Amino acid sequence: MKTVKVTINVNNEKIKLQVKPYETLLETLRERLALTGAKEACSLGSCGSCTVLLNGTPVRSCLILTPEVDGASITTIEGLKEDGKLHPLQEAFMEKGAVQCGFCTSGMIMTAKGLLNRNKKPSRAEIIKSISSNICRCTGYKKIVEAVEEASKKMA
Amino acid sequence: MILPKFEYKKARTIEEALEIYSQYNGEAFYLAGGTDLVPLLKHRLFNPKVVIDIKGIEELKTITKKGGNLLVGPNATLYELKGTPEIQEKLPCLFQSLDATSCETLQMRGTIGGNIMQNTRCLQYNKSLEWRTARGFCYKMGGKTCNVVLNAKACYSNYCGDNAPSLMTVDAKARIVGPTGEKTIKVEKLFSGDGKEPFTVKPGEILKGIIIPLKETKGAYEKLTVRGSIDYPLVGVAVTIKDGSAKVGVTGIGPCPRVYELKEVNEKEINNIADKAYEDAKPVLNAVLTPAYRKKMVGVLIKRVFKRIEKGGSR
Amino acid sequence: MDDNLKIVGKRVVRSDSYAKVTGSALYTADLKLPGMLVAKVLRSPYPHAKIISIDVSGALKVPGVKAAVSGFDAYGVKWGVFRYTQDHAMLPTDKVRYIGEDVAAVAAVDEETALEGLSRIKVEYEPLDAVFDPVESMKDGAPQIHNEYKNNINIHVHIDVGEVDKAMAKAYLVREDTFKAAGEAYAMMEPYAVVASYANGYLDLWMPNAGPHVRAKALSNLLKIPLNRVRVRHINSGGAFGGRSEVAPGDLVASLLTIKSGRPVKLVLSREENATSSRQVHDIVATVKTGMKKDGTIVAKDYKVIYDGGAYSSTGPIATSIPFYVYEECYRFPNVRYNGYRVFTNKGIRGMYGCHGRAFLAGNEAQMDMMAKELGLDPVDVRLKNGLTAGEMTATKSKITSCGLKDTIIEASEKTNFKKRWKKKEKNRGIGMGCVAIMCGFPMGFRSGSSCYVKINDDGQVTLVTGLVDNGQGNESMVIQVASEVLGVPMEDINLVNADTEVTNLDPGAYSQAAAYVGANAVKAACENVRKRLISIASEKLGVPESDIDLKDRIAYSIKQPDKRMPISWIAREAFFRGEPIVATGSFFPDIDFEREWVTRPWGQMAGTFSFGTSVAEVEVDYETGKIIVPRFTAAHDCGRPINPMAVEGQMEGSIQQAGIATITEGNMWYRGFLLNPDLLEYKVPLACDMPEIDTIIVSSHDPKGPFGAKEGGLTVRMNAYSAIACAFTNATGILFEELPLTPDKVLNLLEKNKGVK
Amino acid sequence: MKKEITFNLNNEETTVEVDPKWTLLYLLREVLNLTGTKEGCGYGECGACTVIIDGKAVNSCIFPVLEAEGKNIITIEGLAKDGQMHPLQKAFIEKGAVQCGFCTPGMIMSAKALLDEKKNPTDEDIKEAIEGNLCRCTGYVMIIDAIKSVAAGR
User: Are C25 and A107 in contact (CB under 8 A)?
Assistant: First the structure.
C-alpha cells in the first residue's frame, strides 16, 4: 500500500509525514507523534475523548483520516499551554475540581476551547449544549460546566 | 480500532471523483464528513478499495440563494446550515432537526449530504466483524435472513437521519449527478424503502445539491431519544405548515423516512394522519426501546408537534 | 490539632490534576516500550461450547507474529477470590462459557499483523445448550455451566435473624413486591488495557487496576512465578467503579505472550471488547417482603434476591451480600431473613459495582414509601424512625460508631421542602428520598489494613510510600493533603510513590470504600511518627519543650515564642548528621471481626466504621411519552469530616449521574448471550444536558477513628440515588416500579397497566 | 529521500525504509528498537556498537545503513535461541566478566565473531579479537577467561 505525504501544522509546528492512506488522525497523533493526550475510548465517534481542534474547530480525531487534513492546523491538549503557562481552561478545570479519572479531560477541554473560539461569552445553556458532545463517566459534569464558565470569565 | 486497508484519493472536481470511481470499478466510497462512513469502515461493514475525498470540491460546499430557493451544497456542514439566516427565519422545522442532530461537535463535521445519505442502522448490524461473525451474517450483510425478525428475507433496519424528513416537509429536491448525467428528484425519491439497499442512487452517483424552496413556513421537529444529545432518533417527526396545508415526515422507524400530506390543518386531519402514520410504522426489536412503544410514539409525537406549532413552535 | 486544621477540610486543587489537564498523564495505552508488540485476542463465538482443540501454529507462520498462546500454554490454575470459588481459568481449555470469552491470543509487530495471525488460529468447538436467564438456570435440567455447582447456583447467602415469620404474622401491614433491574456497564472511559514486559525472569505489568497487590498475587498463582517476580506498577486509571479490582483475562494473556516472545506486549481492548469481555454488572431480581407496625416501625424483612452471575464466580459471595448489608447498616431490622442466590448464566463475567444492587435497594425504599402512604405517614418520619443511630448494632452484629444518618435525612428534606411537597403533589411531579449506609472497608483478610513509609529528604521534602490506589476519585491527592497537614509542609513538597507492588505494602486498594478510612489513616500514622522525630530535634535545638512546638510552612517554631524557629530541612540534615535520618512507618488495621465469613458465618463486625447518606430526587413524568425528567437532585452525605470537600462533592455529583440519572437511561440489553449495546452510543451514559440541577450537602460528623474524623466520601450517593428516583416516580404516579432502568417505554407500559391509580 | 532496504536481521527477513544518511546503529536503536547495541563514542573507537555482519564483527556506528542491503546481521538480541542463552552469554555471567554492562553486548559480539571463525583461538587471537572493544571496568581478565572457557568447552 502506498503511503500518503502530508504536511500538517501540529501545535504550531510544521510536520511532514508519510502516513498510511487509512490512518486516522488519532493514530497519527498518538502513534507517530507521541501526542497521547487525545484518548481512544470508543473509536467510533460516540464519546469525544479524542477531540482535537482542526483549524480551530473541535473534531473527533478517530473519525478523520490523516490524509484529509493535509495542510491543516491541528491543536491538541499538549499545545494549549502558551509560554509555559496553562490556558485559563486548564487552570479552571484544576481549580474547580472538574478532573477525576482524567480520561475524558483532554477531549472535554478541547471541546470547550472550540466553544470559546467561536463564542467568547457562552451562556450556561450554551456550555451545557456544547459539552454534551463528550461523555464523562466520573464527574456528573457540574464542575466541568463551572470550570468552562470560570474560564470564559477569566478570558473576557 | 484500526481501519481496513484502502487507498485515499482526493478529487478536485465532480468529474474527477466520477473518474476515480469508475477506475476502481465501483469498489469505492465517497468521503465527506466521515462521521457516518468511518465507523462503518471500522466495523468492516464495507471494504472499499479506495476512499474518494470529495470535501475539496468547491461547488459541493456552497450555500447560495437563487430564485426563491436555497441551493445547498451537500458538503455544507449541519452546523453551517443551522447558522444560515434563511433557514432560521423561514424553515423552523429544518432548523430544529439540524439542531437536534447528534451533538455540536459532530454537527460541525457532519455534512447535510452525508446526513441524508446515512446508512440504515440496527442493534445487530452496527457491530464489529467479530460480533457479527459470531451472530451469523444477517440479510443486510449478505446472509440469508434477518437476525431480528427470524426467518424473514428482508431487512428491518432503521433509517435514522434527522434532516431528510424535514427536507421532505419543505418540498426539497436533490440533484444527482452520475456517469450517465444529471437529474433532479424529490428528496423522498432518494429512498428505496429496502433496508438492504436503502437508496435509489446508483453506484457512483453523487448528490450534487439540495434545492430548498424558501417560503414562509411554520413547523417543528420532535425527536424521541433516551439522552439529550449524541443519540439517533428512535422516532423523529417533522412537520411543516405552509399556505394552510401541511406535511409530516417520520423518521427513525423502518428503512426509509415517510412523508404525509394534510390538505388542511385541523384536528380531524391531524388525527387521521397520526393514525395512518401509526399504522404504517412497523418497528421491530432493533433499537433500544420496545417496538410497540416506538410505534405508539409516532402518533403521539405527530399530535404533539402540531400542538407545539400552535403555541409558537419553539422547543 | 484536629480543631485547628490548616489544610484538611479545605477545597484544594487535586495533586494529579495538572498532568491530566495538560495531557501528560499517562494511561496504559499511552505506554510505548522498546520492541513492544501488539496483542489481539481470539474470542469465543459461542455462549457455551466444548473446546475440542485449539491450534495456534498457523498464526506463528505469519511473518511478524512473535508469539501465540491459548489456555494450553498456561498451567491449568483456576482463579477465584475465595478458595471455594476458584473456577476461572481466564483462558479455558475445557469449555467456553460466554460469547467473547478469551480463547487464544497473538502478539505481533503491529495490529494488522496480529489480526492476520488471529485469523490463522484454528479452534474446534462442540456447541452446547446455553442458558441466559438466572431463574431458568436454577431449574432442574438447565444446561450445567460448571460441574461443581448444582443447579448453577454459584453462591447462596442465607441470613436469618430473629423470628421473621412470627413477626410478619403479627405485623399491622405486610407488603411483598418483586423488582428487577438490568445489569449496567461500568463504561469507564478508558477501555481495558495492559502492558506486560518479561525480562530476566521478572514480569512487569501496567494496567488500570483498583488493587495492584491482589492482581500480582493472582498472576503469581496463574503463572507459577514467585510473587516477588511479578510487579504490578503504578499507572493512571481511567475509571474503575468496582470493575477493575480483580485479575482480568487480558492480564494473563499479555503475560503469557511477553514470556513467550521475550518482548514487551501491549493489549488494548476495543470499546466493544471492553463490554463483552471484561466485567459487567449483575442483573438482579429482588423479592422484598416487609412487615410494619401501624406507626411505621419495620418489624420484619424477608428477602429473596437472585443475581445473574454470568459465567464465573468472580467476586461472587461479596456481590451476593453487599446490597443487603448496606441496607441493614442503615435501618433497624429486629427480624430479617435474606436469601441471596448468585446464579451462573452463559453471559460475561460479573463484578462489583459502585452502584451494585439497584433493584434491591430502590425496591426496598419505594416499597417503604408505598407502605408509609397507606399508613398515613410520610417518608421522612418513617426513615427517621427506623434509621440506626450511633451505638446501635446492625442485624448481623456490626456496631455503628459514628452516624450522621439522621442529619442527612433532615438536611436533605429541609433543603427540598420534602414533607410538604411529598404530600401536596403537583400534577405529574414527584419527590422521593433514598437512604443507605456504606461500610468503610470490609473484611479482606490481611489485606484489610494499610501501611505507609515516610521519609524526609535532605531538602526537607517528603516522600510517601503506600499501597493506596487512585482510580480517579482523588485518593492520591487526599493522602498528600493528610501528610501536608501533619508535617506542616505544602502539598507540592510531597512526593507520592504508590500502588507499585514491588515497593509498596499491602493495601485494600480502591475497593471496599477503604481509602479514606484505612489508607489515609496509615499515612497519617506514619507522618505522625515522623512529626514526633521532627519535634523532638527541634525542641532540643530551639530549647523549648516539645509541647510548645508546631510545624507550619516548612518551619518548626515555638508557639509561645514564634521567633524561635528553624526550617524543617535543617532538622532533616541534623538527623542525617546524627546517623538517624528521619524515616518512619505507620499502619492502620480496622477493628473488624475476622471470623466473619460471607457464606458460612455472616455476622460480626463488618467494618471499622460506616458512612451514611440521603438522596432526594424531584421528577416530572410525561404521561404521553413516559419520559422522566429530573429537574433537581439533592444529596446529603455523612462522610465524617471531608478531607477535601471539593473532591467529595465531585464523587457525589458523579454518583448522581451514574446511579441517579442512570436509573432512567442505563441498562445492558441482551439477545441470547449477545450484548446488544456494548458501545457508548447505544449504552446510554448520561450527558451534560441530561443532568439535573444538583445540590450537595456534606454533613460533617466526626468519626472517632477516621483520619481527622474522615470516613468514605461519596459512595452512599451511588447506592441511594436510584432509590430517590424510584421513590419520586412512585410519588408522582402512585405506582411502584417493576424494572430498571425506567426508560420511557417501561414507564408508559406501567402507566397504562395502572390506569386510574393515583 | 528515503529508500527501502532488505536484509536478514537476527534470522528474520527485514524490510525497512531508511534515510541514506543514517548509520546502521541508528537504524537498530532508534527505528528497530534494538537497544542492546550501545553507542559509546560514535566514531568506531570503542566497539560498544559491535554487531556481526556476514560473520564479521563490525562497528555499526560507522557502517552506512544502505550497505546493510542483502546482508546477514546479528545483534546481541539475536544471540539467545529458544529461550536458551548463548554459551558466551552464560560464560560472561559465570566468570564475572560483566560489571557496568555497557561494553558487554559489543564485547560478546566480537567474541562470537572470533569463535565462529576460529574454533580454538589462542590467547593472542582472543586479545586481538577484542582489542577494538574498550572496557572501563573489568581490566579484561575475566572477559578473556570467559571467552577461553567457551572455546575450551567446545
Answer: no
CATH node for A4-79: 3.10.20.30
Q: What is the rounded (10 degree) CA torsion for C72, C76, C80, C83?
A: 170
Give the gap in angstroms from C-alpha B260 to the nearest C-alpha of chain A.
Answer: 32
Shared-domain flag, residues D93 and D117:
yes
Question: In CATH terms, are C2-24+449-588 and C355-441+596-753 the same topology?
Answer: yes
Write out the residue limits of the CATH 3.30.43.10 domain(s) in chain B.
1-57
H or E segment and range at residue B134: helix B129-135
Residue pair B84/B70 in contact by the 8 Å Cβ criterion: yes
Q: Name the closest residue on chain C to residue B230, using Cα atoms.
A: C681
The topology (CATH level 3) of C355-441+596-753 is Aldehyde Oxidoreductase; domain 4 (3.30.365)
Instruction: Fill in the DSSP letter of residue B231.
Output: P
The kind and range of the H/E element at C476 are helix C475-487
The topology (CATH level 3) of B1-57 is 3.30.43
The A residues from 1 to 40 touching B (CB cutoff 8 Å) are 1-2, 4, 20-24, 27, 40
pLDDT of residue D82 exceeding 80: no
* Total structural domains within chain D: 2
CATH superfamily of A88-155: [2Fe-2S]-binding domain (1.10.150.120)
Q: Does the CB of B1 have a partner CB in chain A at under 8 Å?
A: yes
Residue among C235, C234, C233, C229 at smallest CA distance from C203: C229
- By C-alpha distance, the chain D residue nearest C199 is D83
Predicted confidence at residue D1, as pLDDT, reads 72
The whole-angstrom distance between residue A57's C-alpha and the CA centroid of its chain comes to 9
> Which of B135, B224, B227, B286 is the mutation pick for testing C, counting most C CBs within 10 A?
B227
Residues D144 and D125 in one domain: yes
| Per-residue pLDDT reduced to its tens digit, C172-206 | 999 999 999 999 999 999 999 999 999 989 999 99
The three-state secondary structure class of C310 is: coil
Cis peptide preceding C741, ω within 30 of 0: yes
Report pLDDT for C34: 87
Q: What is the pLDDT of residue A2?
A: 85
Cα-Cα-Cα-Cα dihedral of C227, C228, C229, C235, to 10°? 90
Domain B61-117+158-310 in CATH 3.30.465.10: yes
Q: Starting at the earlier edge strand, list the strands of the sheet with C610-621.
A: C429-439, C610-621, C628-638, C693-699
- Residue B263 dihedral angles phi and psi, to the nearest 5°: -70, -35
Range of the domain at D107: 87-152
Q: What is the CATH number of the domain that holds D112?
A: 1.10.150.120
Q: Tell me the three cell numbers of residue C738.
A: 417493576
D23: domain CATH number? 3.10.20.30
C752's grid cell = 397504562
Number of residues assigned to chain B: 315
Residues B110-169 pLDDT 10s: 999 999 999 999 999 999 999 999 999 999 999 999 999 999 999 999 999 999 999 999
The stretch C72-100 carries a mean pLDDT of: 96
Q: Is B32 helix (H, G, I), strand (E, B) or coil?
A: coil
Residues D99, D62 within the same domain: no
Q: What would the pLDDT profile of C12-36 be if each residue is shown by its tens digit?
A: 999 999 999 999 999 999 999 988 9
Nearest CA distance, C178 vs chain D (angstrom): 59
pLDDT in tens, B93-122: 999 999 999 999 999 999 999 999 999 999
Topology classification of domain C31-128+193-268: Aldehyde Oxidoreductase; domain 3 (3.90.1170)
For chain A, the domains span: 4-79, 88-155
C2-24+449-588, CATH topology level? Aldehyde Oxidoreductase; domain 4 (3.30.365)
**Tens of pLDDT, residues C431-458:** 999 999 999 988 888 889 999 999 999 9
- The CA-CA-CA angle for residues A17, A21, A22, to 5°, reads 120
